[in-house]
Amino acid sequence: MRTLVLNAGYEPLAVVSYRRALVLVLNEKATVLSESDDVIRTVSDSYQRPAVIILNRYIRPPAPRVRTASRLAVLRRDRYECAYCGQHAETIDHIVPRSQGGPSDWFNLVACCSRCNHRKGNKSLNQLGWTLSFTPGPPTQQYRWLKDFDRPAVEWQPYLGYWEKTR
Questions:
Q1: Domain ranges of the chain
Q2: Any idea what the Cα angle at residue 161 is, between residues 53 and 157, rounded to 5°?
Q3: Given Cys at both, which of 14, 54, 100, 115 links 6, Cβ 3.0 to 4.6 Å?
Q4: Range 71-128 classified under CATH 1.10.30.50
């Protein structure tokens, strides 16, 4: 049960638990823009679960951090699609194998299915005659810091669309 937090300028800021969102609303630091059908019951009251809230005051967004490439981050960047065949990817592959001096960075790691990873083995793309469908690199700034954005809730769509149009 996640809640999208928008900055005062309607830009996505974070995804928090519904409890944290409710605390922000009850302390009058945020306003509810969209509610879900779920009801939260306390000892003395009941509330609709907030799906989207907006902060009452603008806060400076966190500075983008340069993250190191991890298995999960590479899979998310490539949307769990194999860079070689387009099937569902469950592992990562070094384009230039580590044994040939390939680094473990954003430019040399891609998501890969088990079949292609096994077929590629310790060979380079030139040896196999394979090509990549895209040029790997670090994730884009957009939504990079938004946790759980790869599974956005239905209630978030109007607000994410608004932010996309204003950029």
A1: 2-63+146-166, 71-128
A2: 60
A3: 54
A4: yes
